[in-house]
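TEACHING EXERCISE
Course module: macromolecular assemblies
Task: Read the component lines below, then compare them to the predicted structure of the full complex.
Student: A.B.
Group: 4
Components provided:
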Amino acid sequence: KAGVTQTPRYLIKTRGQQVTLSCSPISGHRSVSWYQQTPGQGLQFLFEYFSETQRNKGNFPGRFSGRQFSNSRSEMNVSTLELGDSALYLCASSPTSGGTYEQYFGPGTRLTVT
Amino acid sequence: AQSVTQPDIHITVSEGASLELRCNYSYGATPYLFWYVQSPGQGLQLLLKYFSGDTLVQGIKGFEAEFKRSQSSFNLRKPSVHWSDAAEYFCAVGARGNKLVFGAGTILRVKS
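Instructor-supplied answer key:
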């Protein structure tokens, strides 16, 4: 099976712009979670989607949003970008929600905000 | 709230030596515990997991971890480290749904 894919791998944006990142889970997986990784804050949970519904949300401002499509692919959007949004954004897929299955991570999207 | 502590930010070991990376967690119920490894510029790769049952779990690449409820610990071990094991290692606890709470990570350096 192909692994989790994320596009694009690298992105440079300017403050105030918005950005959309994409994640395709492993075939058959219906849960997609998103994480932000920064040197200062480490790995932080953004949100989880399962069957096109947001199941769980981390402590991030409303500028961070996401959605999931019927084929389980997910996108996350960050509006009004700030310098502090520069980070590696990782998505993880799992067969289902509920925490009883391991999650598999993609290679990440490196976002740089200038 | 759930939390994970990895007390060692950096660890350096000689190639061929044994390794133990420490992880302590805080969680009210029986935890789901994970160890992930991340090479520079890469995503996270799952090394092993503990859900229930045998407290000593085996993972990939020769790693193992032992769950000790009394100490709230889930330490990662490897009997003989290879240069290719140099990477950053993250311990995580499963919280509500599929949310993972990660520790700050331990950077492993291997000297030849």
